[in-house]
């Protein structure tokens, strides 16, 4: 028995079996709550835009605020695997699992096997990466591309690498795809430049002489250049009336808290303290020992610079949202592993395993927080409509925030209408509705159907109840999570 256990441990110490274990763990944590929450507004937008031809997806995206790459890939994915919730979110699951595996390979290159394994396990169960690997949006893909680009960079700069130009070319392509996935991806590039300078012993002249570096970066810039005017136009259009709240002293720590626990219990003071500890201690240790300083700086800048840059931009117009930094989360889990291995445990060998186990337990609880936050139940609300719909009924989404997800779950054969006092605009989310003005309901009073299904939000976000005309009689009502359904019988005027 003892020998069997020992042989198992020896077997799992090899890269290939450990990668297999990573795949199992990562997939498990990303699958257990995959369908607990229904498709929500942003995901509903994803499900709608990917039904257009690929060329039209690009033209529709031009009028939105996001680049097109994720939608193009998801459209192709849907054509192969279908449009179920599991399928659509499954693409992000695959991205999330691959992110964990590539992070392990990256950390092996940067540090050693032990740190790489701990970093990968942290990333496999880290609640933030789990959360955004379960969503039909671009964030898991951005994280995968960030880790991939960093791996290619480190490999291209390695003295033992052959055919360096191919690695640099691959790096340029991946960076460009990252920019076509999420614009804030650009803020990982300064971290990459710092790491590159470190490999050149901080001699800018040596950096500028590196043809491979020029190849990679110019290729990335050249591939993204055709889209640059679109990005500028999109940025200009959202200058006013943006919905994102302004930043404060707790903004960045709250993001770190999401990485740890997917809650704000660790925010502000603890968050700043943790950031300082994670960045300063490993850097000081690496500097003191003359080992892996550049590698540690890479992780520290990858984690912090995107948040700092976006927070600085938000001083003018708020653009800071936690989920935008999913591509920085792998650096957090990696740097946390490095921090743990800076602890001297020669006299007390039990300390490090105890810390690792505690962190894993906190992450596991954080994953449960992810599940508890999954309260959106539009699928149940729409199913109530699907089961009780009658020929001639009309379905109205009381607000844009329920339109896309309701449309996804609607199986009545009737189109979902949208209550809107103004004609559908040309830009942003409305770009998908601009040519569908016939779906607009200006006022409930204009409706001539005898029965009307109104779908909106519950509680404080119920914006439609007070707008119901006096000649409408409530017939049915149903609530699921934060979604509300009301069936009204319309009395015809005399």
Structure explained in plain terms:
With 494 residues, this protein is of the alpha/beta class. It has 2 domains: 335 residues, no CATH class; 113 residues. It is 58% helix and 7% strand. Helix 3 packs across helix 21. The longest helix is centred in the N-terminal third of the chain and has 26 residues.
Task: Briefly say what this structure is.
This protein is an alpha/beta fold and about 500 residues long. The chain has helices spanning about 1-10, 15-30, 40-50, 55-60, 70-80, 85-110, 115-125, 125-130, 140-155, 165-180, 190-200, 205-210, 210-225, 230-235, 250-260, 270-290, 295-315, 330-340, 350-370, 380-390, 400-410; strands at about 395, 415-420, 440, 450-455, 470-480, 485-490.
SS class: alpha/beta
Give the ordered list of helices and strands.
HHHHHHHHHHHHHHHHHHHHEHEEEEE
Q: Could you give the count of β-strands?
A: 6
- Largest sheet, if any? 6 strands, mixed
For the biggest β-sheet, the strand order reads 3-2-1-4-6-5
End-to-end separation in angstroms reads 87 Å
* Outline: elongated
Could you list the spans in which at least 5 consecutive residues all have pLDDT below 50?
A: 4-9
Helical content (DSSP H or I, runs of 4+): 55-70%
| Number of structurally distinct domains | 2
**Computed Rg:** 25 Å
Average pLDDT score:
89
Strand % is 5-15%
Total of DSSP H or I helical runs spanning 4+ residues: 21
What's the structural blueprint in terms of helices and strands?
Blueprint: H1 2-12, H2 15-31, H3 41-49, H4 54-62, H5 69-81, H6 85-110, H7 113-125, H8 127-132, H9 139-157, H10 164-179, H11 189-199, H12 204-208, H13 211-224, H14 228-237, H15 251-261, H16 269-289, H17 293-313, H18 329-340, H19 351-372, H20 378-388, E1 394-397, H21 400-409, E2 416-419, E3 440-441, E4 451-457, E5 472-480, E6 483-490
Parallel strand pairs: 1-2, 1-4, 2-3
Antiparallel strand pairs: 4-6, 5-6
Helix pairs in contact: 2-6, 2-7, 3-21, 6-7, 6-9, 7-18, 7-19, 9-10, 10-13, 11-17, 15-16, 16-17, 16-18, 17-18, 20-21
């Amino acid at each position: 028995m003892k020998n069997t256990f020992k042989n198992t441990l020896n077997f799992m110490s090899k890269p290939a079996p450990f990668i297999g274990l990573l795949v199992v763990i990562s997939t498990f944590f990303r699958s257990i709550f995959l369908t607990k929450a229904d498709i929500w507004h942003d995901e509903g937008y994803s499900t709608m835009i990917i039904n257009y031809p690929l060329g039209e997806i690009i033209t529709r995206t031009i009028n939105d605020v996001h680049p097109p790459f994720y939608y193009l890939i998801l459209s192709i994915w849907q054509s192969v695997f279908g449009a179920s919730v599991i399928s659509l979110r499954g693409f992000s699951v695959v991205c999330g699992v691959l992110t964990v595996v590539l992070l392990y390979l990256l950390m092996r290159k940067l540090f050693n096997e032990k740190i790489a394994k701990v970093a990968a396990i942290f990333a496999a169960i880290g609640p933030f990466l789990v959360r955004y690997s379960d969503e039909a949006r671009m964030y898991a893909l951005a994280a995968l591309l960030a880790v991939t680009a960093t791996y290619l960079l480190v490999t291209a700069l390695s003295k033992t690498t052959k055919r360096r130009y191919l690695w640099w070319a691959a790096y340029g392509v991946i960076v460009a795809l990252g920019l076509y996935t999420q614009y804030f991806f650009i803020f990982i590039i300064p971290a990459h430049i710092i790491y590159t300078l470190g490999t050149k012993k901080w001699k800018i002249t040596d950096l500028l002489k590196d043809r491979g570096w020029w190849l990679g970066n110019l290729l990335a810039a050249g591939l993204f250049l055709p889209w640059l005017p679109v990005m500028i136009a999109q940025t200009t259009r959202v200058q006013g009336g943006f919905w994102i709240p302004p930043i404060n002293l707790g903004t960045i720590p709250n993001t770190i808290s999401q990485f740890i626990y997917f809650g704000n219990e660790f925010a502000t003071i603890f968050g700043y303290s943790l950031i300082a500890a994670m960045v300063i201690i490993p850097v000081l240790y690496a500097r003191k020992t003359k080992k892996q300083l550049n590698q540690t700086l890479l992780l520290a800048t990858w984690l912090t610079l995107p948040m700092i840059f976006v927070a600085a931009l938000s001083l003018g117009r708020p653009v800071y949202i936690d989920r935008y930094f999913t591509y920085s989360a792998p650096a957090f889990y990696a740097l946390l592993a490095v921090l743990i291995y800076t602890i001297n445990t020669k006299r007390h060998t039990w300390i490090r395993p105890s810390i690792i186990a505690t962190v894993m337990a906190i992450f596991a609880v954080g994953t449960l927080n992810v599940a508890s936050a999954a309260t959106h139940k539009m699928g149940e609300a729409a199913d109530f409509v699907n089961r009780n719909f009658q020929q001639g009924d009309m379905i109205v989404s009381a607000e844009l925030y329920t339109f896309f997800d309701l449309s996804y779950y609607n199986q009545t054969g009737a189109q979902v209408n949208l209550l809107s006092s103004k004609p559908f605009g040309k830009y942003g989310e409305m770009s998908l509705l601009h040519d569908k003005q016939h779906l607009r309901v200006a006022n409930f009073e204009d409706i001539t159907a005898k029965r009307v299904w109104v779908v909106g939000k519950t509680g404080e976000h119920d914006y439609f109840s007070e707008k119901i005309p006096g000649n409408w009689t409530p017939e049915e009502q149903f609530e699921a999570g934060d979604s509300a359904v009301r069936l009204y019988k319309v009395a015809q005027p005399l």
